[in-house]
Design brief:
Blueprint: E1 6-9, E2 12-15, H1 18-38, H2 40-73, H3 80-104, H4 112-127, E3 139-141, H5 148-163, E4 173-175, H6 177-186, H7 190-197, H8 206-221, H9 226-235, E5 246-252, E6 267-271, H10 276-286, H11 290-299, E7 308-314, E8 318-325, E9 334-341, H12 345-349, E10 355-362, E11 365-372, H13 378-395, E12 399-406, E13 410-418, E14 439-440, E15 442-445, E16 448-455, E17 469-473, E18 489-492, H14 500-508, E19 512-514, E20 527-531, E21 536-539, H15 559-571, H16 592-609, H17 612-619, E22 622-625, E23 632-638, E24 650-652, H18 659-668, H19 684-689, E25 705-710, E26 713-720, E27 723-730, E28 739-746, H20 751-767, E29 771-775, E30 778-784, H21 788-804, H22 816-832
Parallel strand pairs: 16-17, 17-18, 18-19, 22-24, 23-25
Antiparallel strand pairs: 1-2, 3-4, 4-7, 5-6, 5-7, 8-9, 8-12, 9-10, 10-11, 12-13, 14-21, 15-19, 16-20, 20-21, 22-23, 25-26, 26-27, 27-28, 28-30, 29-30
Helix pairs in contact: 1-2, 1-3, 2-3, 2-15, 2-16, 3-4, 3-7, 3-16, 4-15, 8-10, 8-11, 18-21, 20-22
Length: 840
């Protein structure tokens, strides 16, 4: 029976309108009154059906809340659209929870939907980004002083180099970010892109390639708006772009600024003026390449934060091209220049250089040191050196400069971006090595690391690199970027410290060497150590300090995390703590978590109160009397008790026929548990906070544990002092329908003691083939799709473990006790339970 007020559409479930909800509430009201008067048994079943739905939705909602908190607390990288999608699911779940409660009591819970809508709106508001402007200007000249929000990082910097620093920059235009937004709006691509980006969660790997393919395909097939085309083609003649082959280069916002985005986007050379449209679309599409998406997500930017502008310049005919670093990280008196004959595209992409020049200051004089071929004369070297000084001074920071020398010794600056320095993750003090050296290479990025060698061949993706390895590659292309979150070091047979990948590796603080000979002789999976600062690859684990874990690329305050942090108070804050107080009410709900908490507790209350006192007497919960010192009530919703118990208010264990409940109880009541009869277990926390000082705790349902039972089903909420456990299980002949789900949260000990108890429970359950997830102070476990015997066995194990760990958090004094106590419990399970325990 479906009680959730919603309807199915082609796009998914769509919530009902307020008017439709009112009609649904009226229908529930009429049904409830009719059932209460004439068919109270059917009302019980209706409410159990609603409670069953509520129970499933409660779990799903809490899982989403825990996931969102985990993303924030652990700073897990994901796209903002993934967070929005999680929040939309949470909103739908909490909306359905309110509708389930209306099936219990349409009038009592009529206002809960309003509160749910309010906090769902606050969440959407916190995550909402402004719609960017898509009106002109669509084109601007590089001769003007441009801003990054319009021209992107590369375009804005080049305009400053020309108009304020007065260095030679090729003529050209910038197709602005507004043209990009106009393009997306013209083709209605934004909703499609957002849906695709929602797949990029913290565990996404293969999804990057799949999402990239689908978005890029859409962009490349889309049409450019006529007004953008007209603006571009009208601007070309003034810059001489209508008669020359073109360089079409990316210039996204944030590129070359706070984060380098080095090599993540595409630049196309030798493009005919007639083919500029397709080249432009290709550069736009490169914003969504797999490695560019990965880099942006790891840097914590949203997609809307990094719109794409495109720089269009006439092609130069370089005699020599190169990259200049205006400072060294540990020696600001040195300036390094790497160069090749002809185009520098391969140099930037990770290939080796032909010549290297070092400008160094000694006794107030600049000395030139040159390695490799002599590609520049002294006059050009002086001009290049002076340009580097000017750029460094004007931007007030070290610069990573791309330059081109044309025929006639004409020097052009084609890019200048900040050169960021990042301290390595490992100590930088020099270390003497007396043993053998496997190979030597050239520094690219500082640091030391130890790990197993992994040779990456052309058939494997960087997403498939095993975590914690020393990655061996031929060259250093930007496409390697996704591997930086997984590796401890990278060593390459070829390459250059001036390539795009080098910038990204330094951001990630991953040690990198290039131009290493003999790498093919180092065996796969062999353990080596890399000292990038000294250019050495050494056999074995040399370093005395622990090898670092793979790094996170994120090196700045994440906009995604900031927005999630802003939304979390309306998502996860828990204000409703004590169900017995007056403020545990609809009006007390101040977050979606409160909605979930209120719905759960209210659903439990409704199940125990059913249809008032008359209904409780005829179809109500029954107090379970047993030898165990715990307060428990049992509610039968489907042959869970023997037929003769219908009018009884108190039952014994022998009157339970629910097989899952009996298996759970067998574990709880095993002699090996050794209950202390002087301690009565119920919800102490709620009791002490309540005003129910004169309540007979042993007879009250307010603070007791409970079990809802059917012949093949149990849902047990076990309240032991300051913590609670939920066991939910179906065990029948159909293996596919069988499951045991378990969650455990809370406790009276310190934070570390509660964590140790969860670790003990997890260690025992893992030995019995449970799947586990430990998030903050909550443990969840699953044992699914197994036969009856194995499912009943694990319910007994679960009951035994719960009994053995009731007050364990108060007694765990050190982490060393965790494995010791887990082993003791496993031994006792073998001794006391009549089941086959797994080998340990």
């Amino acid at each position: 029976m479906r009680t959730v007020a919603s309807r199915e559409t082609a796009a998914g479930r769509e919530p009902l309108s307020p008017a439709q909800r009112t009609l649904a509430g009226a229908k529930h009201f009429v049904q409830n009154v009719t059932y209460q008067l004439f068919h109270p048994g059917q009302l019980v079943q209706k409410k159990y059906s609603a409670f069953e739905q509520l129970r499933h939705m409660d779990v799903q909602a809490l899982e989403i809340i825990s996931r969102l908190e985990e993303i924030w607390q652990r700073r897990l990288p994901c796209d903002l659209e993934h967070i929005k999608e999680l929040c939309a699911r949470l909103s739908a779940q909490t909306q359905d929870l309110t509708d389930c409660l209306r099936a219990f009591h349409p009038v009592r819970y009529s206002l809960l939907g309003n509160y749910q809508q309010k906090y769902a709106f606050y969440v959407r508001l916190a995550l909402m980004e402004q719609n960017p402007p898509a009106d002109p200007p669509y084109v601007q000249s590089l001769r003007e002083t441009l801003t990054e929000d319009l021209a992107g990082g590369k375009g804005a910097a080049l305009s400053v180099v020309h108009s304020q620093i007065n260095l030679p920059v090729p003529p050209g235009v910038v197709i602005t970010t507004r043209a990009f937004h106009r393009f997306l709006a013209h083709n209605n691509l934004r909703p499609f892109i957002d849906r695709e980006l929602a797949h990029l969660g913290p565990e996404a790997e293969q999804e990057y390639a799949e999402v990239s393919h689908r978005i890029q395909e859409k962009i490349l097939q889309a049409a450019l708006p006529a007004d953008v085309c007209q603006a571009v083609e009208s601007a070309f003649p003034a810059q001489g772009l209508d008669k020359a082959f073109l360089a079409v280069r990316s210039s996204a916002v944030a590129e070359d600024a706070q984060s380098s985005f080095a090599g993540q986007y595409e630049s196309l050379l030798n493009i005919s003026p007639q083919d500029w449209k397709q080249a432009y679309l290709s550069v736009l599409a490169s914003k969504y390449s797999a490695h560019a998406l990965y880099y942006r997500v790891r840097q914590g930017y949203t997609d809307r934060q990094t719109p794409m502008a495109v720089v269009v310049m006439p092609m130069l005919e370089p005699l020599v091209s190169g990259i200049m670093y205006t400072r060294r990280e540990h020696d600001p008196t040195c300036m390094d220049v790497y160069m090749v004959q002809g185009s520098g595209q391969e140099l930037a992409a990770g290939s080796s250089y032909q010549a290297r020049v070092v400008f160094s200051s000694r006794e107030d004089q600049w000395i030139v040191e040159q390695d490799g071929d002599f590609l520049l004369d002294q006059a050009t070297l002086h001009q290049l050196f002076q340009a580097g000084l000017n750029l460094d001074q004007a931007f007030a920071s070290a610069q990573d400069v791309e330059w081109v020398l044309e025929a006639g010794q004409r020097l052009f600056i084609v890019q200048s971006r900040p050169l960021h320095f990042y301290p390595p993750q490992t100590p930088a003090e020099p270390q003497e090595y007396t043993g053998p050296v496997l190979a030597r290479g050239q520094w690219v990025s500082s640091g030391r690391a130890t790990g197993e060698i992994y040779h990456l061949d052309s058939q494997r993706s960087p997403f498939q690199v095993p975590p914690g390895c020393i990655l061996v590659v031929h060259t250093l292309p930007p496409e390697l970027t996704p591997a930086l979150d997984r590796v401890r070091a990278v060593v390459a047979a070829q390459g250059s410290p001036a390539c795009h990948f080098a910038s990204v590796a330094r951001e990630a603080r991953i040690p990198v060497l290039c131009n290493v000979s003999g790498l093919e002789d180092i065996e796969q999976d062999s353990v080596v150590s890399v000292d990038a600062d000294q250019g050495l690859i050494l056999p074995g684990a040399v370093f005395s300090f622990p090898s670092p874990e793979p790094a996170q690329l994120q090196s700045r305050q994440s906009e995604v995390q900031a927005r999630l942090e802003k939304a979390l108070p309306s998502i996860a804050a828990l204000n409703l703590r004590d169900p017995s107080t007056d403020d545990f009410s609809i009006q007390g709900c101040k977050s979606l978590h409160d909605i979930v908490r209120f719905a759960h507790e209210s659903g439990v209350r409704e199940m125990f109160s059913l249809v008032g006192r008359r209904g409780l007497n005829r179809f109500g919960a029954k107090r379970l009397e047993s030898e165990l010192p715990m307060v428990m009530h049992v509610l039968d919703v489907g042959s869970g008790l023997h037929p003769g118990t219908g009018k009884s208010k108190v039952i014994g264990v022998d009157q339970i026929r629910s097989q899952p409940m009996l298996s759970l109880w067998a574990g709880l009541s095993s002699p090996g548990v050794e209950w202390d009869p002087s301690i009565l277990h119920y919800d102490w926390d709620a009791y002490y906070k309540s005003s129910a000082s004169f309540t007979n705790v042993e007879k009250s349902t307010q603070f007791s544990s409970y079990a809802i039972v059917a012949q093949d089903y149990v849902h047990a909420m076990l309240r032991f002092g300051y913590h609670f456990a939920v066991v939910d299980a179906t065990v029948c002949e159909t293996v596919e329908h069988n499951y045991v789900h378990f969650s455990f949260k809370g406790g009276g000990g310190q934070d570390m003691q509660r964590l140790h108890r969860l670790q003990i429970i997890a260690a025992v359950l893992e030995k019995h083939d449970f799947r586990l997830q430990l998030t903050a102070d909550m443990l969840e476990a699953w044992f699914d799709r197994q036969n009856r015997e194995e499912s009943f066995r694990n319910l007994e194990v679960l009951g035994f473990v719960l009994g053995k760990t009731v007050l364990l958090d108060m007694r765990i004094e050190s982490e060393e006790k965790v494995q010791e106590l887990a082993s003791e419990i496993l031994d006792q399970i073998y001794d006391f339970l009549p089941v086959q325990t797994p080998d340990r």
